[in-house]
């Protein structure tokens, strides 16, 4: 491609030497523990930024002090409360059980997932061939599986066997046995277990659940007074504020004949816990008693709104329509509810235009929403005349309505996809003008959370139309008006590019430096580093933070750029108390396939708020459940894409950027002339290293290959008869996937950005996007990808490849320094 940056292509070709991971740096091995103190070195993965609340940043001194703090923190272990002799003894017993049952885990995990006859037989054979705690863990796994299958006698038998041969997990065996008895209506047997549970297992995570179970048991026995005594004993505890406790309390009151109190309690549950299963049970009681009508229209609407916000459109539509049929409401209120129900139908892709048109055309918020929905239906039909007419009418009738903002943004997207860029600019720009602030930032007057995105799209399309002067103004506005927006990295980079085009190297360097400081591992930060290096060839001082450079007009000042701060990295520790009984028990639960209890068990440990997420992820990573471990860690440290390598413990990084199947990746990459880091990055983005991943489009395995692609690649590889299920074999998937990726790269001239976009969205779309106009370099093409998912996909793979490389470089340096 003319003008493409070929210097970057070297990253994707076969490298002469591969940096290998040192075994001591793998998660769960003998790496020294570190605790990382707070450091302004991160930014959330969602790309949002925040302004500094303090003084402006002075780069050189500030960075040095932060780095020193990180190094000092890395040498410290956290002081924690010593374990008692009883806890140490418990921990040792659990550890022995964990070691004894280590070979059980694959079978137990399979049983908890699929529960086939073969899976049951495998775990049963293990139980019969082992003794003590190993056998107990196997019987517990079987009992747990039978309980899930509602085979209660079999569950009780297996759980009794677990208790008879071991006691490391006896609280789980007792609790699950009680559940089996309750669900099979063997109430006296359940009562016997529950009555003595707290005294027998005072440290169990189930202690807080027992009162509600007991209360429900007494209710089943028809003894509300006994249930009330149990609940009364715990009203001052935290569990009294939970929905299950309050539902049990409401049922007790109902059975005791306190109907008014009971209905008030059901009402409270319904309104206070709208998304809970208890709310559904409370609604049933309110409807059957006729008390649902005692709820005010506002209360019912708020409940429906909560369902709508949570994406529960069926339930919300039912509630809205019920309100729409309520004769006690005036016509405008009923119409508002029916329009809200229509919005649910739109979300469920079943909205009928004629039904919507029959609703009154009012001049209130409901009328604005109705017009917006009609506009969306016109857009679906590609009816531009009706779409434009509706939007113009909304501007006149509802100039500050949020539904106008919705309509403007949707219209901009419509014309963007139609490649009518001037019209798209008008809609995006109009939205940003009418709603100049995001509702999430301090504001007065009309606002829209679409404003930052709409403003950026108008700015970018203006740039692509060749109006550099206006684009520069809009880029400056983006940085000044929406400093907390995810579009800021793009705005900083492209404003710097325009300064470069204007031969204002000092100004360009200032923006590039801001990018690399605040968004360390972002796609645009890497590009900024490359541009800084080129600028520094003629003026090395541009690499350093310099005094303020004079600027004209409304361009962001040096102080405004310095006010852009990376998000603080909270205190992170991989100094896990390996002897904590709850943590050891969590590992043992994994052996038995009781994964749903691992999180709660870890949270019960002292100090787990500081290390619990890492410990949980480490459990899954240690057993090869890479995808689960990675998802846990992404949630725990969402700012990792901006953090310096030394700001986060290396053990965290190795879960975030794992390298399973590394030998297969290296071998297949070498055969196809690919960089293994690039292959690993693509797998991370496609499947998170889950070899059994199947997409909603029937793409399989690590590299998410369609069966047709797999069949073609297998034939080229000379594999003979090919079956789709072979795609879940990691080695086969990598072998075929790397061949396919190589062919895709070759098809697009060796440009990885094109290849990644095609891998995600298809070859034809990439060809279509290439035809949108001239791109002077690859960066312009990537920013111009109209599908947000594909654009972020391409940027993420390029970013992650560099992080992989940086991590292995750091590992090699640490190994050499030992």
Could you provide a short overview of the structure?
This protein is mostly helical. Helix 18 runs parallel beside helix 20 and helix 37 (752-761) packs across helix 40 (788-817).
Strand and helix map with partners:
Layout: E1 35-36, E2 39-42, E3 50-51, H1 59-73, H2 85-100, H3 105-114, H4 117-128, H5 132-148, H6 152-165, H7 170-183, H8 187-200, H9 210-220, H10 224-232, H11 243-255, H12 259-272, H13 277-289, H14 297-309, H15 313-324, H16 331-347, H17 353-358, H18 365-380, H19 384-397, H20 402-417, H21 421-434, H22 451-464, H23 468-481, H24 488-501, H25 505-518, H26 523-536, H27 558-563, E4 564-565, E5 567-569, E6 572-573, H28 581-592, H29 598-603, H30 608-622, H31 626-636, H32 650-656, H33 662-671, H34 676-687, H35 707-716, H36 730-747, H37 752-761, H38 763-770, H39 778-784, H40 788-817
Antiparallel strand pairs: 1-6, 2-5, 3-4
Helix pairs in contact: 2-5, 2-28, 3-4, 4-5, 5-6, 5-7, 5-28, 6-7, 7-8, 8-9, 9-10, 9-11, 10-11, 11-12, 12-13, 14-15, 15-16, 16-18, 18-19, 18-20, 19-20, 20-21, 21-22, 22-23, 23-24, 24-25, 25-26, 28-30, 30-31, 33-36, 34-40, 35-36, 36-37, 37-38, 37-40
């Amino acid at each position: 491609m003319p003008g493409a940056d070929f210097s970057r292509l070297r990253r994707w070709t076969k490298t002469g030497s591969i940096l290998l991971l040192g075994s001591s740096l793998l998660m769960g091995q003998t790496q020294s523990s570190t605790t990382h103190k707070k450091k302004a070195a991160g930014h959330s993965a969602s790309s949002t930024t925040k302004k500094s609340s303090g003084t402006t940043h002075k780069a050189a001194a500030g960075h040095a002090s932060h780095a020193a703090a990180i190094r000092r923190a890395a040498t410290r272990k956290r002081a924690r409360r010593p374990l008692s002799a009883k806890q140490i003894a418990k921990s040792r017993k659990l550890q022995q059980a964990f070691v004894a049952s280590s070979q059980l885990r694959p079978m137990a995990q399979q049983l908890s997932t699929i529960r086939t006859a073969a899976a049951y037989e495998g775990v049963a054979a293990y139980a019969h061939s082992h003794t003590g705690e190993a056998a107990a863990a196997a019987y517990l796994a079987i009992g747990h599986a039978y309980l899930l299958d509602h085979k209660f006698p079999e569950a009780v038998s297996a759980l009794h066997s677990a208790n008879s041969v071991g006691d490391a997990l006896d609280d789980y065996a007792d609790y699950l046995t009680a559940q089996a008895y309750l669900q099979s209506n063997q109430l006296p047997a359940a009562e016997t277990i529950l009555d003595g549970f707290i005294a027998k297992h005072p440290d169990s995570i189930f202690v807080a659940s027992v009162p509600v179970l007991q209360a429900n048991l007494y209710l089943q026995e028809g003894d509300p007074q006994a249930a009330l005594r149990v609940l009364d004993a715990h009203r001052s505890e935290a569990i009294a504020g939970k929905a299950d406790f309050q539902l049990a309390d409401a049922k007790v009151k109902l059975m005791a004949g306190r109907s008014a109190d009971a209905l008030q309690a059901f009402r409270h549950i319904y309104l206070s816990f709208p998304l809970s299963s208890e709310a559904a049970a409370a609604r049933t009681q309110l409807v059957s008693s006729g008390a649902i009508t005692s709820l005010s229209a506002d209360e019912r609407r708020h409940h429906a709104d909560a369902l709508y916000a949570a994406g529960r459109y069926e339930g919300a539509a039912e509630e809205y329509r019920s309100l729409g049929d309520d004769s006690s409401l005036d016509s405008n209120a009923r119409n508002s509810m029916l329009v809200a129900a229509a919005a649910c139908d739109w979300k469920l892709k079943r909205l009928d235009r004629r039904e919507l048109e029959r609703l009154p055309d009012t001049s209130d918020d409901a009328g604005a929403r109705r017009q917006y929905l009609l506009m969306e239906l016109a857009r679906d039909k590609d009816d531009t005349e009706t779409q434009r007419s509706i939007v113009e009418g909304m501007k006149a009738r509802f100039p500050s309505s949020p539904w106008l903002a919705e309509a403007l943004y949707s219209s901009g997207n419509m014309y963007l996809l139609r490649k009518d860029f001037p019209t798209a600019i008008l809609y995006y720009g109009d939205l940003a003008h009418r709603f100049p602030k995001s509702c999430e930032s301090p504001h007065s007057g009309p606002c829209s959370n679409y404003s930052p995105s709409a403003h950026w799209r108008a700015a970018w399309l203006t740039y692509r139309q060749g109006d550099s002067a206006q684009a520069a103004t809009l880029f400056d506005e983006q940085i000044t008006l929406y400093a907390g927006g995810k579009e800021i990295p793009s705005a900083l980079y492209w404003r710097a590019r325009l300064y470069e085009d204007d031969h204002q190297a000092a100004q360009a360097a200032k923006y590039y430096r801001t990018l690399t400081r605040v968004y360390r591992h972002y796609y645009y930060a890497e590009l900024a580093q490359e541009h800084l290096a080129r600028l520094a060839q003629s003026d090395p001082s541009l690499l350093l933070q310099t005094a303020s450079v004079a600027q004209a007009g409304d361009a962001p000042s040096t102080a405004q750029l310095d006010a852009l701060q990376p998000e603080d990295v909270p205190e992170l520790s991989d100094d896990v108390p390996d002897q904590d009984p709850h943590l050891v028990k969590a590992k043992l639960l994994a052996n038995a396939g009781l994964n749903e209890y691992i999180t709660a068990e870890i949270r019960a440990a002292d100090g787990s708020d500081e290390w619990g997420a890492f410990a949980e992820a480490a459990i899954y990573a240690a057993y090869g459940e890479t995808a689960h471990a990675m998802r846990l860690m992404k949630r725990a440290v969402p700012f990792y894409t901006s953090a310096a390598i030394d700001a986060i413990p290396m053990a965290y990084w190795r879960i975030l950027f794992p390298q399973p199947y590394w030998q297969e990746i290296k071998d297949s990459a070498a055969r196809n002339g690919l960089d293994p880091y690039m292959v690993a990055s693509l797998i991370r983005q496609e499947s998170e290293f889950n070899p059994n991943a199947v997409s909603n489009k029937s793409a399989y395995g690590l590299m998410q290959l369609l069966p047709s692609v797999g069949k073609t690649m297998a034939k080229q590889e000379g594999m003979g008869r090919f079956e789709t299920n072979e795609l879940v074999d990691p080695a086969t998937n990598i072998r075929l996937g790397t061949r396919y990726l190589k062919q895709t790269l070759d098809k697009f001239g060796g440009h990885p950005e094109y290849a990644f976009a095609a891998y995600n969205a298809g070859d034809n779309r990439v060809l279509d996007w290439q035809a949108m106009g001239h791109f002077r370099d690859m960066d312009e093409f990537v920013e111009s990808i109209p599908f947000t998912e594909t654009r972020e996909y391409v940027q993420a793979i390029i970013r992650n490849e560099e992080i992989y490389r940086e991590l292995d470089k750091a590992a090699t340096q640490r190994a050499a320094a030992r």
